[in-house]
Amino acid sequence: MIKHIQGLHHVTSIASDPRANNAFFTGPLGLRRVKKTVNFDAPDVYHLYYGDEVGTPGGVMTYFPFPNAVRGRPGGGEVGTTRFSIPRGTARAWADRLSGSGVTASESTGPFGETLLSFSGPDGDAFALVESDDPRDPWTGGGLSADMAIRGFHSALLRPRDNGATEELLRFMGYEEVDRRNGVLRLAIGGGNAANVIDVETLPAADWAAQGAGSVHHIAFSVKDRQTQDAVRKALTDTGYRVTPPIDRDYFWAIYFRTPGGILFEVATDAPGFDRDEDRAHLGETLKLPRQHEHLRAQLERDLQPIGE
Questions:
Q1: Cα 62 to the center of its chain, rounded Å
Q2: Cis amide prior to 272 (ω within 30 degrees)
Q3: φ, ψ at 44 (rounded to 5°)
Q4: Exposed, middle or buried by CB within 10 Å (0-12, 13-18, 19+), for 7?
Q5: CB atoms near residue 212 (< 10 Å)
Q6: Contact 61, 67 (CB under 8 A)
Q7: Which of 15, 40, 144, 287 has the most CB atoms at less than 10 Å from its CB?
């Protein structure tokens, strides 16, 4: 069993409009844009990162906003819902805040008894806010008080099509069963970071999800450094998974592999972090480019759509 995974690192999704995407996360959700860069494989497309003051692993939501991307179709083999942690007793205030921005939110009791506030992003993205006792310090520069602001990720709901193989993989990655109710399995990593919960709803008869705007592209798990990442990669490859070599993503190193249930997993290092090339006071303000795309700066600054503050 792998003992190096700490919980979630980031979740990366697809959007259709960078300006609307930026406005949603920095506006109603009150997160900080911690990095404005481009897709390594498609430099004419932004890669936007949102989180707390410094983009702490375990709370970073990232997007590839492909202009005019077709809406995705929900189904099996994907991350169904990304959930953020909010303080207890704030769901009603959050519902009012979202409503004031034209976002309809529905309050309910989740399968494990917590208060959920479910809503959709600009492209139909499935999100929920979960009331919890979360000790993490929030970002308050977005206009939200510390007693209401998002703390980071609470959990993610996976919807694989396999009959148990994804559950077996997560157990191998260090997750342990916490509860199982209403067709949903809850797993968590003891002693991990505060984003250490994964829910699994197996849908063997579901149609495959069609990826597009509003879909999660991949979900990333946190490890401390390159050394622990190498150990994780060896354990996975020794078990039969086809794992990429480590890839330098400027702000972390990443390895990728596909789960038996069709979901793309990433394992990302916590270091070097989003402040490696910007002062913390000015994160996300200027366009940062990977070294191999720096020669395209003039063209990209001309062609990429302005997204606002």
A1: 6
A2: yes
A3: -85, 5
A4: buried
A5: 16
A6: no
A7: 15
Q: What angle do CA 53, 92, 51 make, to 5 degrees?
A: 15
Nearest to 31 by CA among 107, 125, 143: 143
State pTM to two decimals.
0.97
Q: What is the pLDDT of residues 100-129, one digit of tens each?
A: 999 999 999 999 999 999 999 999 999 999
